[in-house]
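Reply to dn_fold:

You asked what the input looked like. This is it:
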Amino acid sequence: MKPLLKETVGFLVICSRYPRFDSFVAKAKTKCAREYKSGFHVICDKRELDIEKAAAIDGPY
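and this is what came back:
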């Protein structure tokens, strides 16, 4: 995946209900921040998001 990345990347999971905050979600957030300098966010509601904010570490809101 890294050779394909030229700009900022972010990880956004959209689900019908929020998964419990277990070690998988915590590890994914830490890995994304460390390796990709990007955010990993889980949202459960319907809204419009700005793509630059969704890729940011501090969140899509």
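The chain has one domain: 2-55.
Hope that clears it up.
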